[in-house]
């Protein structure tokens, strides 16, 4: 065998290369968790929100310096580096942007395009990273000067096609002042960051989920005792079917939580509280969670029409204040699915609630709304994170 390889190397040197010029020993593996699907956001841009799962099977420490989304010709579309990249990395071992040997992390991307720009057939990830060796104490040290691998390296990979466009649906609520808490796409919220493994497969069911709470005419979430359900004027608001469909999953066996405190008695069965899943067709399933006990107006197998009242907004399951958790997914199980984007037919935006340092969740005070951001009417668009929207009758 040695003679055969030697002869091959002599006859055709290019075939004997261990790595070709476009092949990089990257120390880390990078792959998208699922195919991204485009959606028009309330900012007038088309969003591709998806995640890169990064694993480090090497014995080196690897720091992510820059991550770009590029088109098939290598042209950059979107990029993150430094602190901006760190804010969109969730590390499962180690910390920040550095993956220790055997570590893994998720990088959350929000690649956006102008509304009228044709999307590429696929996108790839270009990664710039730095290696460090593991010292005798197991901590990172600079790579030796005579190391066979360079400390800094770059590669392009993790290709993914672009999936089907977002489904356009009617709003699930009516009235003014609904806030899209924990919405998409520019931050790692409790929804976007909820990557989980089900039956050995990574899932991101809540990628586009929204927790809808309602401000009153004075921009208060509640008046009176924060722990009393009656303090929240929107508690019991009718919840509407967003499309025609069939009820394929249902749970109605848990009581209300006390608002203003930690949820109790949570398990995998009741985490969504009293809930419904409606098959809207074409691989789109609508999920409504935390409904009032006994308020569900339908049963398994029932057909519903867009606009039908299907239940009442409650505070059941993993909930610390009355709200409607809503998202669309690619299967009937709220956790064993990947989240899909959706666009509401019409809404009026009031602006964006300032969440940092806000205390309107805990005290009967007005929320601060930046009315310069995203204000105005929208059609066939997705409300973005913490946006305040009005839905028509």
Q: Could you please describe the fold and organization of this structure?
A:
InterPro entries: Cell_wall_metabolism_enzyme, Dup_hybrid_motif, M23ase_b-sheet_dom. The longest helix has 10 residues, at 2-11. Strands 12, 13, 16, 18, 19, 20, 21, 23, 24, 25, 26, 27 and 28 form a 13-stranded mixed beta sheet that branches. Strands 4, 5, 7, 9, 10 and 11 form a six-stranded antiparallel beta sheet that branches. Strands 1, 2, 3, 6 and 8 form a five-stranded antiparallel beta sheet that branches. The protein is globular, with a radius of gyration of 24 Å. The termini are far apart. It has 393 residues and is mainly β. It folds into two domains: 25-161, Immunoglobulin-like (Sandwich), CATH 2.60.40; 168-391, Glucose Permease (Domain IIA) (Distorted Sandwich), CATH 2.70.70. Helices cover 4% and strands 41% of the residues.
Describe the structure using short key phrases.
393 residues; 28 strands; M23 family metallopeptidase; single chain; Glucose Permease (Domain IIA); Cell_wall_metabolism_enzyme; signal; 2 helices; six-stranded antiparallel sheet; Immunoglobulin-like; 2 domains; mainly beta; Dup_hybrid_motif; disordered N terminus; 13-stranded mixed sheet
- Helix fraction? under 10%
Structural class determined from secondary elements: mainly beta
- H/E element sequence: HEEEEEHEEEEEEEEEEEEEEEEEEEEEEE
Let me know the largest β-sheet: 13 strands, mixed
Treating each run of at least 4 consecutive H or I residues as one helix, how many helices? 2
Shape: globular
Count of beta strands: 28
The CATH architecture assignment of the largest domain turns out to be Distorted Sandwich
Identify the CATH class of the largest domain: Mainly Beta
What is the terminal separation in angstroms?
A: 78 Å
Number of domains: 2
Average pLDDT level: 93
Low-confidence stretches: 1-14
What percent of residues are in strands? Answer: 35-45%
| Radius of gyration over C-alpha positions, nearest whole angstrom | 24 Å
Q: Might you state the CATH topology name of the largest domain?
A: Glucose Permease (Domain IIA)
CATH superfamily of the largest domain: Glucose Permease (Domain IIA)
Pfam families: Peptidase_M23
InterPro entries: Cell_wall_metabolism_enzyme, Dup_hybrid_motif, M23ase_b-sheet_dom
Organism: Xanthobacter dioxanivorans
Keywords: Signal
């Amino acid at each position: 065998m040695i003679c055969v390889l030697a002869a091959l190397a002599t006859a055709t040197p290019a075939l004997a290369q261990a790595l070709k010029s476009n092949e990089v020993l990257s120390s880390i593996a990078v792959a998208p968790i699922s195919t991204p699907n485009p959606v028009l956001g309330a900012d007038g841009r088309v969003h591709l929100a998806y995640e890169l799962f990064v694993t480090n099977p090497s014995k080196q420490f690897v720091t992510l310096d820059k991550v770009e989304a590029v088109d098939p010709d290598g042209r950059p579309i979107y990029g993150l580096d430094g602190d901006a990249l760190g804010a969109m990395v969730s590390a499962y071992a180690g910390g920040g942007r550095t993956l220790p040997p055997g570590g893994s992390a998720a990088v959350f991307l929000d690649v956006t395009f102008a509304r009228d720009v044709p999307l590429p057939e696929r996108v790839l990830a270009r990664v710039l990273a730095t290696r460090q060796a593991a010292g005798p104490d197991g901590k990172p040290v600079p790579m030796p000067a005579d190391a066979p691998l360079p400390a800094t390296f770059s590669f392009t990979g993790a290709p993914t096609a672009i999936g089907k466009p977002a489904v356009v649906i009617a709003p699930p609520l009516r009235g003014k002042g609904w806030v899209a808490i924990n919405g998409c796409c520019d931050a790692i919220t409790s929804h976007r960051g909820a990557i989980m493994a089900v039956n050995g497969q990574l899932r991101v069911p809540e990628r586009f989920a929204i927790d809808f709470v309602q401000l009153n005419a004075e921009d208060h979430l509640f008046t009176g005792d924060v722990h009393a359900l009656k303090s929240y004027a929107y508690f019991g608001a009718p919840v509407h079917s967003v499309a025609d469909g069939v009820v394929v999953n249902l749970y109605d066996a848990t009581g209300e939580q006390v608002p203003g405190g930690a949820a109790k008695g949570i398990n995998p069965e009741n985490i969504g509280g009293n809930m419904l899943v409606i098959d809207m067709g074409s691989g789109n399933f609508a999920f409504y969670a935390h409904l009032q006990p006994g308020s569900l107006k339908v049963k398994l197998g029932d057909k519903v029409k867009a606009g039908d009242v299907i239940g009442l907004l409650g505070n059941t399951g993993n909930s610390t204040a009355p709200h409607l958790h809503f998202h669309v997914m690619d299967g009937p199980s709220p956790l064993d699915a990947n989240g899909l984007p959706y666009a509401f037919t019409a809404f009026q935006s009031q602006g964006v609630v300032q969440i940092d340092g806000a205390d309107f969740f805990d005290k009967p005070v007005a929320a601060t709304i930046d009315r310069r951001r995203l204000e105005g009417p929208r059609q066939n668009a997705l409300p973005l994170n913490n946006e305040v929207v009005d839905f028509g009758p």
